[in-house]
Specification:
The protein is of the alpha+beta class. The chain folds into two domains: about 130 residues, DNA primase, PRIM domain (Alpha-Beta Complex), CATH 3.90.920; about 80 residues, Alpha-Beta Plaits. The strands form four sheets. The chain has a five-stranded antiparallel beta sheet, with helices on one face.
């Protein structure tokens, strides 16, 4: 995975972008540098932005690299982060405004600020109380092979296809997969198809002995429904320096 960053030298950067400590190694296992990360963001920005635009995003910063202390930030001052903007404060009353990254410049600003993970919510800011994505988070336990994770994702996809719910696949960072179902934002999760729970139970009964766990996530993080977790769309976990855009079902 680290090779993806190390070979990302062709990502074009704006002439006005200034990167501090560009040669600092952010992942000792792969040798990837901060500049490699910035260039990789530039390369994959066009793939990432459709999943970022309009959605509240939280940032995980690693000033000392992926093996150091991490900082989770749902709020931040944007004055020194060109392209990162504040959303309407009414979305999260009594707190600082949430963040949105909707341009490639914002993505590069995040990389310069040592952001290694981008966690989006499952609803757009424009329709915040009605999510438009449902995520089945497949999280392997100790001893579960990558082959079994892939098999679980394919099985989940088959269930969802049978229910008439098209899905796409994303890596989740360290070792899991997310099966994502786009949904119309006109319904709150309590009115969504019962098939969500049925598919999850059927899948869990097959994979519980493998040490696999799952979570169906629908609501925005501050919404009233408890089955909610932020979804890590692209991550650089310890020991794996890479970004994880959406995947084709045959890519992995």
């Amino acid at each position: 995975m680290g090779d993806s960053l190390k070979t990302a030298g062709e990502g074009r950067l704006p002439a006005t972008l200034r990167i501090s400590n560009p040669d600092r190694v952010i992942d000792r296992q792969s040798g990837a540098t901060k500049m490699a990360l910035v260039r990789y963001y530039a390369l994959v920005g066009a793939l990432m932005l459709p999943h970022l635009k309009g959605r509240p995003v939280s940032l995980v910063r690693a000033p000392d690299g992926v093996g150091g202390e991490l900082f989770f930030q749902k709020h931040a001052e944007t004055g020194k982060l060109p392209g990162v903007k504040h959303l309407d404060p009414a979305l999260d009353p009594d707190h600082a405004p949430m963040l949105e990254i909707s341009t490639e410049r914002g993505l590069l600003s995040a990389a310069q600020w040592n952001v290694i993970e981008l966690h989006t919510q499952n609803a757009n800011a424009a329709n915040y109380e009605k999510p438009n994505r449902m995520v089945f988070d497949l999280d392997p336990g100790k001893g579960v092979s990558w082959r079994q994770v892939k098999e679980a994702a394919q099985l989940m996809r088959a269930f969802l296809d049978h229910l008439g719910l098209p899905a796409f696949l994303k890596t989740s960072g360290g070792k899991g997969l997310h099966v994502v179902v786009p949904v119309r934002p006109g319904y709150a999760p309590p009115r969504w198809p019962r098939g969500r729970r049925a598919a999850g139970r059927a899948w869990a009964s097959r994979y519980r002995w493998h040490g696999m766990s799952w979570m169906a996530c629908a609501a925005p993080i501050s919404g009233p429904w408890p089955m909610c977790t932020r979804v890590s769309m692209w991550a650089i976990p310890p020991g794996m320096a890479t970004l994880n855009p959406p995947q084709g079902w045959r890519q992995r």
